[in-house]
Amino acid sequence: MKPIQWIRVRSELGAGTRGASLGIDALKIAAINAGDLDFFSRFEGIEVADENHLLHMQADLNYAKRIAGIHTMYERISQTILRSLHTGHFPVVMSGDHSSAGATIAGTKMAYPDKRIGVVWIDAHADLHSPYTSPSGNVHGMPLTLSLNEDNLDCRHNEIHPSTREYWNKLKAIGGISPKIYYNDLVYIALRDTEAEEDYLIKKHNVRVFPVEEVTDNGVTKVVADTLDHLSNCDFIYISFDVDSMDAGLARGTGTPVANGLSNNQARHLLNGLLASQKVCCLELAEINPLLDLENQIARLTFPILKSAVETIVGEEREVRE
After folding, report:
1. For the chain, how many structural domains are there in total?
2. Strands in the chain per DSSP E
3. Cα–Cα distance between 145 and 151 in angstroms, integer?
4. Rounded (to 5) percent helix, strand, coil in the chain
5. Torsion of CA 33, 36, 41, 46, to 10 degrees
6. How far apart are CA 186 and CA 3, in angstroms?
7. Is the peptide bond before 179 cis (omega within 30 degrees of 0)?
8. Which residues is 189 bridged to in the sheet?
């Protein structure tokens, strides 16, 4: 059993809506209100310094906004994850916006450079854009593409600035390893809001997708088993949980809520089932934005899911699932 280490990443440089940097504090308040006063002090934690002061400056590159600051964050986050794994910890990453996930994947690959890393992406969105295809320029829509060393030039419609190209290539090469993951080792759960450029890559590479309807119809247990079976050739698995994977009626406090998502019970059982596998080495939660919410609802909803996940990680019931 590995001890948990909290990795706190307050960066929200990659989002289009402000407030995700407050997600960690919202979770802490939810824990206090639930009576779990010492929950976040039971394990040691690391605070990754952010560059959120850049939010007070005009974004200079339209198709990858604030990418220079995000590159700085990637260097910091990936090194933090590397050290956490090398010191025998199980990092639980609490992030602001989802762009940070590319750095978490990078740090995991840097820790295990000769191993195959599987990714379970529980999210309403595919996050498979690049500066060449992004309609918004928000980098939280790009972490998987840079992890895959993917530009998607087949669907290119943006002419990007040379500085954008330079920093994009730097992001893809973080840690000196590129790509970090492969399409065969990627699984989506609850995906339901994609764009044509992303659909092109998913279809081209036959990426495994479990829509919400499949989770509901076949049950969480079946989806967990099929996910782990699909990733059976991977040595380690990283799980990324974006709260917008849950239904917008529940999860309003996030930058891009989407209807017809997971229930909170489905989300909790999914994470618990996946975390029962000892191949899972890292968990990340992202995109809690209490400024878009009433009475801290999204954090109050997510905290029991996180608490249950932590109990599974530290429990004795974790077993290897091939």
Report:
1. 1
2. 4-9, 45-48, 90-95, 117-122, 186-189, 208-210, 236-242, 280-286
3. 7
4. 45, 15, 40
5. -60
6. 26
7. yes
8. 122, 210
Domain that holds residue 283: 4-314
User: 286 vs 132, 168, 233, 261, CA distance in Å?
Assistant: 24, 22, 27, 16
CB 131 within 8 A of CB 141: no
φ and ψ of 268, to 5 deg: -65, -45
pLDDT per residue as tens digits for the range 241-281: 999 999 998 778 898 889 999 999 999 999 999 999 999 99
Burial (0-12, 13-18, 19+ Cβ within 10 Å), 44: exposed
pLDDT in tens, 155-211: 999 999 999 999 999 999 999 999 999 999 999 999 999 999 999 999 999 999 999
**CATH number, position 131:** 3.40.800.10
In the chain, the amino acid numbered 85 is L
Residue 53, in any domain of the structure: yes
Contact 36, 307 (CB under 8 A): yes
Residue 184 placed within a domain: yes
pTM: 0.96
d(CA 60, CA 309): 39
Domain annotation covers residue 34: yes
Question: How far, in Å, are 41, 76, 178, 291 from residue 65 at the CA level?
Answer: 35, 19, 22, 21
In a domain, 319, yes or no: no
Q: Output phi, psi for 6, to 5 deg.
A: -75, 130
**d(Cα 59, Cα 193) in Å, to the nearest integer?**
26
